[in-house]
Structures are given as C-alpha cells and as structure tokens.
Amino acid sequence: MERKNIYFVSDFHFGLESAEKERIKEDKAVRFLQSIAADAKRVVLLGDIFDFWWEYKAVIPKGFVRFQAQIADMVRQGIIVDYFVGNHDLWQNDYFAKELGVNIYRKKYQAFVFDEKTFVLGHGDGLDPMDIGYKIMDAVFSARISRWLFSLLPSSAAIGIARYFSRKNRRRHKKYDTHDYKEKEPMYIFCQNYLKQSHADFFVFGHRHIKNVLPVGKSSLYVNTGAWIEQSPYAVWDGKDLKLNSF
Ligand SMILES: [Mn+2]
C-alpha cells in the first residue's frame, strides 16, 4: 500500500479516568494506529494526548506503554510522527523525541506544506489574545524556572499538583463549549484573523472536544478533531481532501 495519508488526532487525555477505562481507551488508540500504519506517511498528534504529563531527567509517569510502543514502531517503519503539546501535556521534555523519535512542537501553531497545500496546525489553546488569565497561567507553566522548581518535588506531590491543574483546566473549558463557533470560538476567530494576513488552506486543531468541519474565509477549511474520549474522531488528508472520520 502506498503511504500517502496524513492523520490528525487529539485529546486522548490518557490518565483521565479509572485504570480499567484507560486501558480500554489505550487499546482502541493502539488499534487505530495499527489500522492506519499501512497507508500513513505522517501522524500528527494535536495535543492533550495525556491528561497530565511530567517527566524527570530519568523518570516518566507509569502507563500507556502500549501506545508508546506503537508510536515507536510506526517511527521505525518510516512514518513521521509530530506531537504538538497541549495545555494538559505541555511538560513534555525530550523523552518522546529521544526514545520514540517523535517531533515535539511547543508553539501554539505552525504552518506546514503538505502536497502543495498549506496546513496550520496546533493544539488550539491560547489562541485568544483577550484571554489574559490563560496567558499568565501558560507563561508560568512554560517558564524554565517553574519546571526546575517542580523537578525538586517528590513525584507523588508533583503529579498531585499536575492533576489539580488538569482538573482546573477542564473547568475553564466550559466557557466556550458551544456550537456557536463563528461568534465565540477563539480558534475559529484566530483562523479568520490569520487569513487576513497570510494564506492557509486548512486549519486543524483539537482542544475543544467538539469535532467540527467549517468553511473559513473565502476557500479555507477549519477542522477540529474533537476528543478521542467520545466517538474516536480523527482527520485524514489523502493528498486531495481532508475528511473527519470516526474509528
Ligand atoms: Mn486542551
């Protein structure tokens, strides 16, 4: 089979629920990755893959090794794997890059050209210039000193704090949980503004947990990959069309 497809998926939030539920979710994610391995040339993980993530110099959180092994195997097969960190898993260090061979992106968004089309990709958080509270929290969590201070904590305390902020983050979310995209959705407004400055054919984000495909600007498309937690959505680019499917 020809490797021509690019897959986009986000918001697994591994670690969110009970161990049993998470194992079922992980197994389904692995089956999905296995199902696309034959025709994928690239897989883009659009953030919040983990509900929280923290890594020490020599230690990572337990669990989800099947998912990690599947990713490593795909990289070994020559599939490019990109990972935009989300607001729940922004504390990725170099483990995924060094151990699994994944490209880690910490930017809020980045433009790529695939098959002569421009894709603007990102997790989707922090795109609202008016959300000052978010910007401050994001700056604190992204700062090197915070990471250093955090690294001095014992792992049980560090993960307890990470979990606390993970839950707090989820509450903040509610504000925009609406289908009233064009008026209120910061990601959609970001796309509209982006198109005033530069060209893009496709915008693909996650973060909102509501899957969506909407035209934006004159001839561009906004796609949100939703949350794997519900209906296992993913987007696929086959070189001609970008479609939103469910696994
Ligand atoms: Mn998010």
Question: What distinguishing features does this structure have?
Answer:
alpha/beta, 8 helices, 247 residues, 6-stranded mixed β-sheet, Purple Acid Phosphatase, chain A, domain 2, globular, 5-stranded mixed β-sheet, single chain, binds manganese (II) ion
- Name every ligand kind in the structure: manganese (II) ion
Proportion of strand residues: 15-25%
The CATH homologous superfamily corresponds to Metallo-dependent phosphatases
Q: What is the CA-CA span between the terminal residues?
A: 20 Å
Helix content: 25-40%
Number of helices: 8
Q: Residue-averaged pLDDT, rounded? A: 89
| Tally of DSSP β-strands | 11
Overall domain count = 1
Give the CATH architecture: 4-Layer Sandwich
Low-confidence stretches: none
Radius of gyration: 17 Å
The largest sheet is: 6 strands, mixed
Report what the structure shows.
- By secondary structure, this protein is of the alpha/beta class.
- It has a single domain, classed as Metallo-dependent phosphatases (Purple Acid Phosphatase, chain A, domain 2, 4-Layer Sandwich).
- 36% of the residues lie in helices and 21% in strands.
- It has 8 helices and 11 strands.
- The protein has helices at 19-36, 65-76, 95-100, 132-142, 144-151, 155-173, 181-184, 186-197; strands at 5-9, 40-45, 80-84, 103-105, 110-114, 117-121, 202-205, 212-216, 220-224, 233-237, 242-246.
- The strands form 2 sheets. A 6-stranded mixed β-sheet has the order 4-3-2-1-10-11, covered by helices on one side. It has a 5-stranded mixed β-sheet with strand order 5-6-7-9-8, with helices on one face.
- The radius of gyration is 17 Å and the shape is globular.
- The protein starts with a strand and ends with a strand.
- The structure holds manganese (II) ion.
- Manganese (II) ion binds at residues 48, 86-88, 123, 125, 207.
